[in-house]
Amino acid sequence: MRGNILNLLLTGMAAILAALPASSPAAQLPNLIIILADDLGYGDLGCYGHPSIRTPNLDRMAAEGMRFTDFYVGACVCTPSRAALLTGRLPIRSGMSGDLQHRVQSRKSPGGLPPEEITIAHALKEKGYATFCVGKWHLGHYRQNLPLCHGFDAFYGLRWSNDMEPARGIPKGASSSLNPNPEWWSCTLMRNNQPLEQPTDLSTLTRRYTEKAVRFIQQNREKPFFLYFAHTYPHIPLFASKAFQKTSPRGLYGDVVEELDWSVGRVLETLRQQKLDQQTFVFFTSDNGPWLIKELVGGCAGHLQGGKGSTWEGGMREPAIAWWPGRIKAGTVNRELACSMDLFNTCLALAGVPLPADRIIDGVDMTPMLLGQGPSQRNHVIYYNGDEVYALRKGAYKAHFTTYSGYGEDTPERHDPPLLFHLPNDPGERFNVAADHPEIIADLRQELEKHRAGLVPGKRQY
Ligand code: MG
């Protein structure tokens, strides 16, 4: 009798303890990590078919997680793409888009990401997330536009691209050189709002970023964190650390991408070591397509047409891998529409933060799709070049109203009727089927008009 009562008491206590919130990291909100490469092309990773760049860590990440075939970014160049990712909004709404003469923020730009914009980091502070921005920012270099004013506890990296601080007397075309000289560059490495090093040793940048990211994970294992790890490379000028120099069959570009791959491996390995892998959502992608005019120091868009600066698929469709052991089914290939702006909605949903109600958000929540609970909620993708819509995709079809090579001597070419491509059957956008599908063109035009009708452009920041 006494034994039965004791058993009942013990069972009851165990049930109460199980219902209490545990103090272990397992009871926390999920950690969120976004790793962003710069100018990496759709075809530059082993798991996307590159024949000579070796990316075992990203390939493993894809094998353990979800690899996207139709993942887009919010713009075809650095600044607006980053603004879109961090705010979930088309860059034209925040004023973070320009024209073909002013495509990204320059050192002369008068503004930056406006303080009233809400970034993922800013939104997550509501739930007590530790936040860290490591790497390239490129969303304004004035104090009120830097990461610390946008929800990040700390920043370690460059305010802009690595080709924006040349040293005096730099030879013409040096940034595109296959053998860039470190003395041609005088980049300033920042810690929070203060310069830390100038000229920065560009060859050790990926390694040092990675060390900072790893330490941040280790130091915050007991509370939820958001790590925005925005690599400087493979944007030119390219530099790799000693351990990777002259090691890749793909030359310098391969050395640099293979070091990025090593870095991703270090981040995932740290999560495993800290036993945080099952409670951390990691997403890898690039800000825009490869810079094709840079030839062998630029990347490759695989079977897609075009690259950085253009709204052909190669400019805005990116390699993308989601990883969350135990939550995202291993080895999934996702062929649905998704966009970097969706990371805003997804991160907020995972952290239980409601979306801002006072503004239009262009992202959609990817959580059901990531967890295998439902299809993509994304209806279409809009391809802006600067302040202007050049193309629109809905389902299988994409209409080009304007095309432009991205960089070079040509000017934008208008199309009326628009060019129309069936992307699953013609990913290289080679066969215009507009004449066969006037009803699809009418539908895509209507989608565009609907978008334009509700659009209020923000004050241009550059
Ligand atoms: Mg870029």
Please provide a written account of the structure.
With 462 residues, the chain is α/β, with parallel strands linked by helices. It folds into 2 domains: 25-378, 3-Layer(aba) Sandwich (Alkaline Phosphatase, subunit A), CATH 3.40.720.10; 383-453, 2-Layer Sandwich (Arylsulfatase, C-terminal domain), CATH 3.30.1120. Helix content is 26%, strand content 19%. The chain is built from 11 helices and 15 strands. It has helices at residues 2-19, 56-64, 78-87, 91-94, 120-125, 205-219, 251-273, 313-316, 342-351, 367-370, 438-453, and strands at 31-37, 66-72, 130-136, 154-158, 189-191, 194-197, 225-230, 280-286, 317-323, 332-334, 338-339, 380-385, 388-394, 397-403, 413-422. The strands form 2 sheets. Strands 1, 2, 3, 4, 5, 6, 7, 8, 9, 10 and 11 form an 11-stranded mixed β-sheet that branches. The protein has a 4-stranded antiparallel β-sheet with strand order 12-13-14-15, with helices on one face. Helix 2 packs across helix 7 (251-273). It is globular and about 55 Å long. The chain starts with a helix and ends in a 9-residue tail after the last helix. Mean pLDDT is 94; it is low at 8-26. The protein binds magnesium ion. Residues 38-39, 78, 235, 287-288 line the site of magnesium ion. Magnesium ion (MG) binds next to loops.
